[in-house]
């Protein structure tokens, strides 16, 4: 799977916290039963596992093959500083 918190953040920056998208949230932002997610990457992977499980394939191994934050192309949402923070 590809996990890009950048796209969720840029689609809804009023409701998606930048610190959550960049692994910097000091507290769980999303609480789902016993799962507490401090970052959007983990929440994305958890959601993917849940979808696969609901599709009847709970034993499928998932590999994140791509993730990242762009460093240019969308003004102050794509800076070298944000890219470095994501890594």
From TrEMBL:
EC number of the protein: 3.2.1.39
Gene3D superfamilies with a match to the protein in the record: Glycosidases
Keywords linked to the UniProt accession: Glycosidase, Hydrolase
Ranges annotated as spanning the membrane: none
Top-rank lineage group of the source organism: Eukaryota
Catalytic activity field: Hydrolysis of (1->3)-beta-D-glucosidic linkages in (1->3)-beta-D-glucans
InterPro entries cross-referenced by the UniProt entry: GH, Glyco_hydro_17, Glyco_hydro_17_plant
Family, as annotated: Belongs to the glycosyl hydrolase 17 family.
Record protein name field: glucan endo-1,3-beta-D-glucosidase
Species lineage: Eukaryota, Viridiplantae, Streptophyta, Embryophyta, Tracheophyta
């Amino acid at each position: 799977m590809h996990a890009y918190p950048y796209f969720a953040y840029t689609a809804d920056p009023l409701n998606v916290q930048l610190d959550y998208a960049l692994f910097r949230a000091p507290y769980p932002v999303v609480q789902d039963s016993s799962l507490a997610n401090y970052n959007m990457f983990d929440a994305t992977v958890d959601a993917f596992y849940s979808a696969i499980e609901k599709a009847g394939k709970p034993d499928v191994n998932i590999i994140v093959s791509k993730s990242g934050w762009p460093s240019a192309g969308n003004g102050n949402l794509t800076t070298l500083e944000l890219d470095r923070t994501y890594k």
